[in-house]
Amino acid sequence: HLEDEACGAEHGDGDEWRTTVMLQRMPPTFFEDSVCGLLESLGLAGSYDAVHAPKNRHSELSMRFAFVNFVHAAHAARCMRLCSGLHLDPASPETACNVEYSRAQGREFCTAQAEKRCGRSGRRRARAS
Questions:
Q1: Is the pLDDT of residue 90 over 80?
Q2: pLDDT at 102
Q3: Which of 14, 17, 57, 61 could pair with 28 as two cysteines, CB 3.0-4.6 Å apart?
């Protein structure tokens, strides 16, 4: 399936094959569990199979972005519609969440980023598909 491809360079310009999004401008306390809770509260439970929210090694706070891989491209597009513009950080109410498609795509990308950035003890959440 196209939604399982790790890189989309060989696909057309359309977004119908993209499954991985990058959520930006997240609160500094948003980690994988918070992202999953947000997605589930928006009716996206069961529609994604990997979440990676890197943290700053020095401060232990979130880097304020997260990658989410969805099972189907339609779920990724729905996430973009639902999350874009949300105000998630009470400490910075003027900052709205921005969502875009990740340049790299696929569950493997999300889990590889978690392993590369955090090592074996890093925080990541992958769901069995």
A1: yes
A2: 84
A3: 61
End-to-end CA distance of the chain: 14
Contact between 15 and 3 under an 8 Å Cβ cutoff? The reply is no
Question: Quick one: pLDDT at residue 74?
Answer: 92
CB atoms within 10 A of CB 71: 19
Tell me if residue 75 falls in helix, strand or coil.
helix
| Cβ 118 vs Cβ 62: under 8 Å | no
Tokens of 24: 């930006």
> Taking phi first (over 0 means left), then psi (-120 to 50 degrees means alpha), and beta for anything else, what does residue 75 get?
alpha
CA 128 to chain centre: 16
Angle at CA of residue 111, ends 60 and 45, nearest 5°: 90
**Quick one: which H or E segment has residue 49?**
strand 48-52
CA distance 119 to 45: 27
Burial of 45 (0-12, 13-18, 19+ CB in 10 A): exposed
**Residue spans of alpha helices (H) in 22-94:** 32-41, 73-83
